[in-house]
Amino acid sequence: MELLLVMKIGELAKLTNIPASTIRFYESKGLLTPTTRSANGHRLYTQQNLEKLQLIKFSQSLGFSLNEIPLLRNENDELNHTVIIERLEKNKKKLTF
After folding, report:
1. Residue 55: which residues within 8 A CB-CB, separation 6 or more?
2. Residue 91, helix vs strand vs coil
3. First and final C-alpha spacing in the chain
4. Is the pTM of this model over 0.85?
5. Which of 35, 16, 36, 32 is nearest to 24 (CA)?
6. Residue 23 to residue 45: CA distance in whole angstroms
């Protein structure tokens, strides 16, 4: 049986070194959604949210804008590796000139 890690926004922020305000901003853009809310309204996050947040930061490091990040997933919600590879190749060409 897998243990489900549940954390509040402050814990997620500390774990990822990303400010809670940035996490809320990503939520407002539709890039990240809390798994659920506690009885008193606190956002609750799981490992899946943590991984999605890491993907957002990784995508930004490759030069993807926040508007482009949703395009990195295909219709099955899997990563579209072709788009990522094309961006890496584009970045490589910029570095060689």
Report:
1. 69, 72, 79
2. helix
3. 52
4. no
5. 32
6. 11
